[in-house]
Amino acid sequence: MDIDGKKVLVTGGNSFLGKSLVPLLEEKGAEPISFSSRDYNLTKEKDVERLFSRFNPAIVIHLAVDCGGFKYKTKNPGSIFYNNILMNSFVQEYSRISEVEKFVGVGSYNAYPESANSPLKEEDLWLGHPNEPNYSYGLVKRIMALQSQLYRQQYGFNALHLMPANLYGPNYTLEPKSIRIIPLLIKKMIEAKNDNKEEIELVGTKDAFREFLYVGDCAEAIILATERYNKTDPVNIGYGKAIRMDDLGEKIKEATSFLGVIKWQESYIDGQPERILDTSRAEIEFGFKAKTSLGEGLKKTVAWYLSHKAVL
Prior knowledge:
This protein is α/β, with parallel strands linked by helices.
């Protein structure tokens, strides 16, 4: 698919990922359309109908989501399920009704079963339930993928589903609801450095392994999939390597020039010990391979924080 000149509706276009995706779409010659949730509430069918009627997009990339960090997901499993099931269902349904050329749903690797072994393969998605606190969030992402498959089966609807790893990079938020682990560590270490502190305390399991994908690479993967992928099978989007959390802390120390000591409060339970994606399908099907190393990505993320911290 040539996206040059195509109107691309990006739900969540003002989000962390959206702020990397929209400029790349513009570089490709597409006409990205983003909007404020104050103007169009995607949990309201009338708003979704009005949105599609106004813009009549050729392509829809669905990023919008109600989610947050560990505490938010633990406290709000019901509303997370309700809000996301409505948004995902309405946006896909009106994409179908409006006969868009392609629907790209962006899910999450948190949808994988707790029992699945790393590296996580797409065919393992339904072999068990997601771990806590991702149970409701992970299930609703699976349902979005299933809706795409069933719509393709019944209506010939051209829909695909991507499952990115943990994202990091510029344009993140420091709002308590949505803050991610890498931005949190950067903030803590820079503040500790500025306050001449000799140590910081982190809550979590230092021996857990997690995979992190630079947000710009994820945006590139979405565009490649939009252009080149036309199958119903979900696709992992990741870096393909994981890092021990203790080692991640040391890398962020290096990127921020914090010279103090990290102390881990390890009584805290933060999920499975290892989460790594098998990324071979993305490379085979549409030529995506992450190119930003963790070290390089952290430098860019720290530089963005230092230039924006006055307004964060």
